[in-house]
């Protein structure tokens, strides 16, 4: 099984804060399926850059308020 992508998100919280918006409501507003929104929300799928911007736009927040990069520290350079 593949490791989850190193990107986390706050979509569930943002949906709750937006009058408990459903996954289907968000999907309709960004032109995706509910299943895709669910996979993104559960960190099983990383959205395209365009989709990420659309999601942020729906909630009226900067993209980094929706998505966070959680990769480990880069490997040490060997000079």
Structure, described:
This protein is mostly helical and 79 residues long. It is 43% helix and 8% strand. Strands 1-2 form a two-stranded antiparallel ribbon. Helix 2 (23-30) crosses helix 3 (34-41). The chain starts with 6 loop residues before the first strand and ends in a 10-residue tail after the last strand. The mean pLDDT is 90.
- Work out the helix count: 4
Helix content range: 40-55%
Which class do the helix and strand fractions yield?
mainly alpha
What is the residue-mean pLDDT, rounded to a whole number?
A: 90
Mind describing the biggest β-sheet?
Answer: 2 strands, antiparallel
Distance between the termini: 35 Å
**Low confidence ranges:** none
Query: Major sheet: order of its strands?
Result: 1-2
- Record field, number of beta strands: 2
Strand percentage, roughly? 5-15%
H and E order: EHHHHE
Shape: globular
Rg over CA atoms: 14 Å
